[in-house]
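Folding problem:
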Amino acid sequence: MRHCVFWQNPCTYAHYLTHSILIVMKKLFIPALFSILFAFGCSKSDDNDTAKIPFWVVSSYQSGTVGANSTNPFDGYTFEFNDPNELVIHRPNGNTETAKWAVDTNSAVAAFTMDNASAPVDLLMGVWQVTAQTATELKLERQDTPSTVFEEGAAIEFKQQ
């Protein structure tokens, strides 16, 4: 392409101006396109967005010695299994407590710990055998030596809400 000498010929000036605009547009088009896609393609993350956190409920609690289904102690409770190993317990009165949880995938064992756990949360604390697990369901059976005779052979089932 020949160089335009726009001060000698007005028609050449128009050609020079058009050519310059096209070059600038080509150089700006791709970065502008990526900027627009980036700005509108990504949304802000809100770490406090509880709609993204799955809540779990105890759908069944079987006390081993009594042998009766005892879900009533956990009515109104919801549980969040968060990372790293944090269990947030939402009580029916709106209060929350935090416990720790861990799962050994090799031996299919889950453990729950909490200092000074009060009823009925204290029934969950200890070591449990994972008997079934899906994306929306978790079934556990008491593995360790329970602190009370009512916990012997206990089984619990969590379901995702």
Q: What stands out?
A: The CA atoms of residues 1 and 21 lie 16 Å apart.
